[in-house]
Specification:
The chain is α/β, with parallel strands linked by helices and about 130 residues long. Helix content is about 40%, strand content about 25%. The protein has 5 helices and 5 strands; from the N terminus they run βαβαβαβααβ. Strands 3-2-1-4-5 form a 5-stranded parallel beta sheet, with helices on both faces. Helix 3 crosses helix 5.
Length: about 130
C-alpha cells in the first residue's frame, strides 16, 4: 500500500521523532517501503539569526538515526533549507514521490490556532496520506 515514507523531524526536539520514527519504520517494514527522514533549516531574518549550517544539521540528523533509527533498513537522511517548514516538507514529499508522511504533533498553543501548526498545514495540504502521532 505504501512505497515511500517520509518522516519530518526537528533535530532539537526528541519529541519530534521519539514516536514517529519507530512507527514509520514499522510501516516501512510491513509494506516493504523505503524510508526517508528530513529536517528543515528555516530561512529567517536577519541572515545569521537561528540558522544552523547544513553540515552541522546533517551530523545531528545522522546521530539521531544511528541512535534511534531502525538498524535493519536503509534510511535516507535529508537536510533541506526553506522559507516555510511545512511547505518545504510537502515539496520534498512530492519530489520523492512519497505516499505517506509520518510525523509528530505537539499539543496546540493559541498561536497555532491563529497561524496553524506545521502538522496542521501538512495534514490539510499534503498530496499524500499523513499519519500524525501524539
Amino acid at each position: 500500500m505504501f512505497d515511500k515514507i517520509l518522516v519530518p523531524i526537528d533535530t532539537t526536539h526528541e519529541s519530534s521523532y521519539k514516536k514517529a520514527l519507530p512507527l514509520a519504520a514499522e510501516e516501512a517494514r510491513h509494506h516493504g517501503a523505503s524510508l526517508s527522514v528530513v529536517t528543515v533549516i528555516p530561512d529567517v531574518e536577519p541572515v545569521d539569526a537561528g540558522r544552523a549550517e547544513p553540515a552541522e544539521e546533517q551530523r545531528r540528523l545522522d546521530a539521531i538515526l544511528k541512535e534511534h533509527g531502525p538498524s535493519d533498513m536503509q534510511v535516507e537522511a535529508l537536510v533541506e533549507r526553506g522559507d516555510s517548514v511545512h511547505k518545504t516538507i510537502r515539496r520534498k514529499a512530492e519530489q520523492l514521490g512519497c505516499d505517506l508522511i509520518v510525523m509528530n504533533s505537539h499539543h496546540p498553543e493559541l498561536k497555532d490556532y491563529v497561524l496553524g501548526s506545521n502538522a496542521s498545514q501538512i495534514v490539510h495540504h499534503a498530496k499524500c496520506s499523513v499519519f500524525v502521532v501524539r
